Amino acid sequence: MNFSKRIYTKELLDQGNIPFPDIKKNMQELNAINTWLGGHKITVNGFKQLIGKRKEVTVCEIGCGGGDNLAAIAKAVKIKVLVKCIGIDIKKECIDFAIENPANNYRVEWIASDYSKVFFKQQPDIIFSSLFCHHFTEEALVTQLQWMKENSSIGFFINDLHRHPLAYYSIKWLTIIFSNSYLVKNDAPLSVARGFKKKEWENILKAAGIKNYKIQWKWAFRYLILCKHA
Asked: Which residues form the Methyltransferase domain (predicted)?
């Protein structure tokens, strides 16, 4: 593997012929990975950094999958902040799974759609994505970041992978040993190889015309990108 450049091989999950039981297993294992390796903790951290002292917030996730990131936010702040959630995913099967998942017992609106085709009657305060951006080309991400900026009233954040050999080989062997999902075994290390380095994020943000941002490195090999409107 050459980690100096991203690779663009499509993940199995990005193909249209995957049976839903396999997608469901994939989402369940990703939730476990995000829980044990701190991915949900990073998402909650990004949310808290943007809301400040607000007591009522609407938060929208694009590429929400089964809704586990939104559930983590709602659970973390349920006593102190009144949160309304919006989950958007292009795969109707993922939205159906999220609707039926008893863990998603918080105020939420589910939307099965390409995020870019969604029109909000009232802008969400915060928009975010987690493990979503590495599915796209740099050119598509420029448009995506601009959409997130234009459609959020407070700002947006991104939680995604740092392309690094230690991250790649660690998740490769962990999933070989512990995963029962062929999607996770294939896509988890491939996701790292499709991830970004800090300078690449800086170039994408510059191309999108976004200046007010912070890039924070987080364990385990994640970047948290925070963009707050001035």
From this structure: 59-146
Indicate the average pLDDT of the chain: 96
Among 17-26, 41-50, 133-142, the minimum mean pLDDT is found in 17-26
Average pLDDT over residues 45-62: 97
Q: Tell me the C-alpha distance between 155 and 145, whole Å.
A: 11
Whether 201 shows a pLDDT value over 90: the answer reads: yes
CA–CA–CA angle 20, 25, 30 (5° rounding): 125
What is the rounded average pLDDT of the residues 48-54?
A: 95
Q: Where are the domains of the chain?
A: 12-161+198-228
Buried b or exposed e, range 172-195, using 16+ CB within 10 angstroms: bebbeeebebebbbbbbbbbbbbb
For residues 51 and 12, what is the distance between their CA atoms, to the nearest angstrom?
35
The pLDDT of residue 230 is: 80
Contact 90, 193 (CB under 8 A): no
- The length of the chain is 230
Angle of CA points 159, 70, 132, to nearest 5°: 35
